[in-house]
Amino acid sequence: MTHVVTDSCIRCKYTDCVDVCPVDCFREGPNMLVIDPDECIDCAVCIPECPVNAIYAEEDLPADQLSFIELNTELSHAPGWTSITQRKPALADAQDWKDKSDKMVELVR
């Protein structure tokens, strides 16, 4: 099993999780992060670090977030989605978006 970043990360892109990841499995896109399932070792240290609760163990994903399993896999190997290993500031308007749901339409690939 692996861990999955869900739509809560879209338009926020808090990077607290990357500081604790022992295997550098996070990939950064324009307005969210994803986890490379080929790299994730299922350690779960990233889950409590996420201030918007965007990270789940695959087996704990809410039903409405199951599509993010495939999306994390796809985007973690997409051109332009590069490894991120150090914390960066969140997006400028992250506070405005952190409590919103159903943000898939906002995803920039």
Summary, kept brief:
With 109 residues, the protein is α+β, with helices and mostly antiparallel strands. It starts with a strand and ends in a 12-residue tail after the last helix.
Q: How would you describe this structure to a colleague?
A:
By secondary structure, the chain is of the alpha+beta class. It has one domain: Alpha-Beta Plaits, CATH 3.30.70.20. Strand 2 and strand 3 form a beta hairpin.
Features:
two-stranded antiparallel sheet, 5 strands, 3 helices, single chain, Alpha-Beta Plaits
What is the CATH class designation?
A: Alpha Beta
Coarse shape: globular
If classified by CATH, what would the architecture be?
2-Layer Sandwich
Q: Give the termini separation.
A: 25 Å
Percent in helix: 10-25%
What is the number of E strands? 5
Domains (count): 1
**Structural class by secondary-structure content:** alpha+beta
Order of helices and strands: EHEEEHEH
How are the elements arranged and paired?
Elements (H helix, E strand, L loop, with lengths): L2 E3 L10 H5 L5 E3 L4 E3 L19 E3 L9 H10 L5 E2 L10 H4 L12
Antiparallel strand pairs: 1-4, 2-3, 2-5
